[in-house]
Amino acid sequence: MSHDDANMDCSQALYRMMEYVDGEMTPADTQALRAHLASCSPCLAERDLDQVLREIVQRSCACEPAPPRLRATIMQRITTICDDGSWSEVTQVRQISTEG
Ligand SMILES: [Zn+2]
């Protein structure tokens, strides 16, 4: 490996990986990082991981509203079942959650 074409080392590459995945780097930096990835498989694996993570986060934000309230409702339902074991109680909890 040589230092002449890419000035970026592993710590720099990993530090700026998120910028790279987000496409926020300058063309020169992008090229330097890309050159590093071409010759460094551990950093390339890290790039893949970051990219996958980023895509998962973006998709779950866009497609899945999942408000915190919904999660609280589910917890309430489970607790109610455990306490009373009755399905009428479950319906009551659901009504409260849609109101408020
Ligand atoms: Zn590296």
Structural class: mainly alpha
Helix and strand pattern:
HHHHHH
Helix content: over 70%
What percent strand?
A: under 5%
Count of folded domains: 2
Task: Write down the Rg.
Answer: 24 Å
User: Which of globular, elongated, flat, extended, rod-shaped describes the shape?
Assistant: elongated
Main beta sheet? none
Please provide a written account of the structure.
With 100 residues, the protein is mainly α. It has two domains: 10-63, no CATH class; 68-99. The protein has six helices and no strands. The chain has helices at 10-15, 17-22, 27-39, 41-63, 68-84, 87-99. It is elongated, with a radius of gyration of 24 Å. The structure holds zinc ion (ZN). The site of zinc ion has 6 residues, from helix 1 and helix 4.
Topology:
Elements: H1 10-15, H2 17-22, H3 27-39, H4 41-63, H5 68-84, H6 87-99
Give me some keywords for this one.
binds zinc ion; 100 residues; 2 domains; mainly alpha; single chain; 6 helices
Question: Summed up, what is this model?
Answer:
The chain has helices spanning 10-15, 17-22, 27-39, 41-63, 68-84, 87-99. The protein has 100 residues and is mostly helical.
